[in-house]
Amino acid sequence: MSSGGFHIVIPARMASERLPGKPLAMLAGRPLIEHVFQRACAAGADTVSIATDSNEVKSAARSFGANVVMTSADHQSGTDRIAECVSTLGLDQGQVVVNLQGDEPLMPAACLVQVAALLHEDHDADMASLYWPIEDEEDISNPNVVKVVVNAGGAAMYFSRSPIPFPRHARPVPRQQPDTSSWKRHIGLYAYRVAALQEFSQLPPSELETVEKLEQLRMLESGGKIAMARACEFIPAGVDTPEDLERVRTLLRSTVY
Questions:
Q1: Any idea what the Cα angle at residue 214 is, between residues 118 and 201, rounded to 5°?
Q2: 165-174 as b/e, with b when 16 or more CB fall inside 10 Å?
Q3: How far apart are CA 163 and CA 170, in angstroms?
Q4: Domains of the chain, start order
Q5: What is the DSSP track for 35-96?
Q6: Tens of pLDDT along 203-256?
Q7: How much of the chain is helix, strand and coil, in % rounded to 5?
């Protein structure tokens, strides 16, 4: 899959509610943010930048050779931080930017290439993202697992923390073949066109976004198009809690990359 040119921005902040200081948490002898940066570099992007408001993150990132863009401490979301970073970098309106969250140390590089390629291939799309079939029945009703439904053309129709589609006459049991599962877990990996990103960041939070606490709904409510595809590789969950940190530490002990 050819992606064309693209840029990766990694938003990172120290003030995580569930895991304060998360970017600098140590994993296999290196800070978490360095693992994320290495995943980004492996994707062959034109540029990789870390966007942060923290001097601690800035110092750590520069120690392992990353380009750092300092951003405002007032941003309410990673998307807003990326929008400021993109303006500072002076990227052209038509260029593609991938938002790799700073807590995804196990992100496959191939998925970064894939999500950028979706935008290059669909000129009508403003954003692109990925999903993975839900195979665990408990995940269907778990509000921490965001679900997405897509149309026949592969564009997102809606995102929700509730089971969508809702099984009106049957229990929500995934089918045996993951490729045909009716339930899709949304993966928080995004690609944007610069123009759409800047316009998106200027919009106020939408009604559905406020209800579901899902920022991507703002794009759909404003009439934007989000291209979707099944991830080309399984993407392990990121690091949100101390328990996640221990899980990833265990995985990294047995993983060489």
A1: 70
A2: eeeeeeebeb
A3: 12
A4: 7-252 (3.90.550.10)
A5: HHHHHHHTTT-SEEEEEES-HHHHHHHHHTT-EEEE--TT-SSHHHHHHHHHHHHT--TT-E
A6: 999 999 999 999 999 999 999 999 999 999 999 888 888 898 998 988 887 665
A7: 35, 20, 45
pLDDT in tens, 88-132: 999 999 999 999 999 999 999 999 999 999 999 999 999 999 999
Does position 172 have pLDDT exceeding 80, yes or no? no
CB 51 within 8 A of CB 84: yes
Q: What residue type is assigned to position 115 of the chain?
A: V
The pLDDT value recorded for residue 147 is 96
Among 140-154, 155-169, 174-188, 196-210, the range scoring the smallest mean pLDDT is 174-188
CA distance 52 to 24: 12
Q: Tokens at residue 159, please? A: 């995102």
Cα 169 from chain centroid (whole Å): 33
pTM of the model: 0.91
Determine contact, residues 10/68, Cβ cutoff 8 Å.
no
- Euclidean distance between the first and the last CA atom of the chain, given in angstroms as a whole number: 22
Q: Of 201, 206, 193, 188, nearest to 84 (Cα)?
A: 201
